[in-house]
UniProtKB/TrEMBL annotation:
This is DUF427 domain-containing protein. InterPro entries: DUF427 (IPR007361), DUF427_sf (IPR038694). Residues 61-147 form the DUF427 domain. It holds the Pfam family NTP_transf_9. Coiled coil: none annotated.
Length: 157
């Protein structure tokens, strides 16, 4: 009888091969200081959020004096601020054909070029329209900036 397991599920980790229980594996990962990097799907923090939290700070993305995005309902992940799509000035963005795949988030990113006057930053904005990983599902359709775009958090007044 052929195996019904997918090829990658036949592999065993060093911990599985030695019979180490799940709790002990988690304890070892925590002891190595990697728990934030490898959260289990049962942790409260990995549950999909339904709405971005309102913050005490306003996140602002700008380039060459032009405001690209501004919101107090943003997410932070992987050292980046993710802005809701409706907070972004799409008049200054031009979609490109560039795509990339993020294995951690489980999705393909799409990119935009920022144009302000005669200056432009190619592929400086990205978004994931569809994500497979539940830990990152809340970032779908949010926009992140890099490559010269200034992103800062300013206290609300």
């Amino acid at each position: 009888m052929p195996s019904r397991l997918k090829p990658w599920s036949r592999r065993t980790s060093r911990f599985q091969a030695t019979g180490v229980a799940q709790e002990e594996r988690v304890a070892r990962v925590q002891a190595m200081g990697l728990f934030d990097k490898f959260k289990t799907s049962s942790s409260a923090e990995s549950q999909m959020a339904t709405a971005a939290p309102v913050r005490d700070y306003v996140a602002v993305a700008s380039y060459e004096g032009a405001e690209l995005a501004k919101t107090d309902t943003y997410y932070e992940a992987d050292g980046r601020v993710y802005f809701p799509a409706d907070s972004v000035n799409h008049d200054l963005l031009h979609k490109t054909a560039t795509t990339s795949y993020c294995g951690v988030k489980g999705g393909q990113a799409e990119y935009w070029t920022v144009r302000v006057g005669d200056k432009e930053l190619v592929d400086a904005v990205w978004s994931y329209p569809h994500l497979k990983q539940p830990n990152y599902k809340h970032l779908e359709t949010y926009r992140a900036f890099w490559k010269g775009v200034n992103v800062e958090k300013v206290a609300k007044t």
